């Protein structure tokens, strides 16, 4: 159940992982889209419940690793309802700009509404786009961020190359994502929570157990820490590093463009 072959399988037989299922490559983006359209209305509430609020601390740590500066132009991929976008827009100031993107129109619409409600209208822009084919020029952004979105991308290697392409020299990409628990005795407890509690919570709160079962499975199929760092290096990034949080439940990866 913990096969982490990732993108390589799609090159062999035309299928790719969707959780523990194998689906045609061209089907994954559509199925992921269905998941997030289903959970969009309860997305923020479920994030708080699932992580007991820890996701806010994880994102705060990620922002610290981004090191945004006034005047920076930052691309926030798979931005969802905009937690990172909101924090980044405050840091870059009126001289800077954050481009908030998502492949899912329901999530992007909720994020845009949230930015408007928060008064973040002058330095935030929006783009409905696929992380594998970014509609931006080469070397355009000072930073690129993606939080809890990379594991849902069909071809992670392609997305990482696109992230590298749009970065200015001297900039870096920051990837916040669920990863692999590195303390063996904690793994059974984490598995029990992931595969029993999360789907139950999804059914009771969001009326959608299957989407949260996919969430747990997609985490197990995502490349672990060292493998993702190696994939970033293969995409062109240098000095790739990562920081484990909460015993490796999540990790923050960085890769630099010089």
From TrEMBL:
Gene3D superfamilies: Vaccinia Virus protein VP39
Enzyme Commission (EC) number: 2.1.1.163, 2.1.1.201
Keyword Transit peptide assigned: no
Organism the protein comes from: Alkalilimnicola ehrlichii (strain ATCC BAA-1101 / DSM 17681 / MLHE-1)
Annotated S-adenosyl-L-methionine binding sites: 81, 102, 130-131
Top EC class of this enzyme: transferase
Protein name, entry field: Ubiquinone/menaquinone biosynthesis C-methyltransferase UbiE
Catalytic reaction equation(s): a 2-methoxy-6-(all-trans-polyprenyl)benzene-1,4-diol + S-adenosyl-L-methionine = a 5-methoxy-2-methyl-3-(all-trans-polyprenyl)benzene-1,4-diol + S-adenosyl-L-homocysteine + H(+); a 2-demethylmenaquinol + S-adenosyl-L-methionine = a menaquinol + S-adenosyl-L-homocysteine + H(+)
Family membership noted in the UniProt record: Belongs to the class I-like SAM-binding methyltransferase superfamily. MenG/UbiE family.
Keyword Cytoplasm recorded: no
Domain of life the protein comes from: Bacteria
NCBIfam families on file: MenG_MenH_UbiE, PRK00216.1-1, PRK00216.1-5
GO molecular function, one term: 2-methoxy-6-polyprenyl-1,4-benzoquinol methyltransferase activity
PANTHER family in alphabetical order: 2-METHOXY-6-POLYPRENYL-1,4-BENZOQUINOL METHYLASE, MITOCHONDRIAL, METHYLTRANSFERASE
């Amino acid at each position: 159940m913990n096969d982490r072959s990732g993108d390589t399988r799609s090159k062999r037989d035309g299928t790719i992982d969707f959780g523990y299922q194998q689906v045609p490559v061209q089907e994954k983006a559509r199925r992921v889209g269905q998941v997030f359209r289903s959970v969009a209305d309860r997305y923020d509430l479920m994030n708080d419940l699932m992580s007991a609020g820890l996701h806010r601390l994880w994102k705060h740590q990620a922002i610290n690793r981004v090191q945004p500066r006034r005047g920076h132009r930052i691309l926030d991929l798979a931005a969802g309802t905009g937690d990172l976008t909101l924090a980044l827009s405050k840091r870059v100031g009126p001289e800077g700009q954050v481009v908030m993107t998502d492949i899912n129109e329901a999530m992007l619409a909720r994020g845009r509404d949230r930015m408007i409600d928060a008064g973040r209208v002058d330095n935030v822009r929006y783009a409905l786009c696929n992380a594998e084919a970014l509609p931006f020029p080469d070397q355009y952004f000072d930073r690129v961020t993606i939080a809890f979105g990379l594991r849902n991308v069909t071809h992670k290697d392609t997305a990482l190359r696109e992230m590298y392409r749009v970065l200015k020299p001297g900039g870096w990409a920051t990837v916040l994502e669920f990863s692999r628990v590195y303390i063996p005795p904690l793994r059974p407890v984490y598995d029990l929570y992931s595969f029993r509690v999360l789907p139950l919570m999804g059914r009771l709160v969001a009326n959608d157990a299957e989407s949260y079962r996919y969430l747990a499975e997609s985490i197990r199929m995502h490349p672990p820490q060292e493998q993702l760092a190696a994939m970033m290096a293969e995409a062109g990034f240098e000095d790739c590093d990562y920081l484990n949080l909460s015993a490796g439940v999540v990790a923050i990866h960085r890769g630099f463009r010089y």
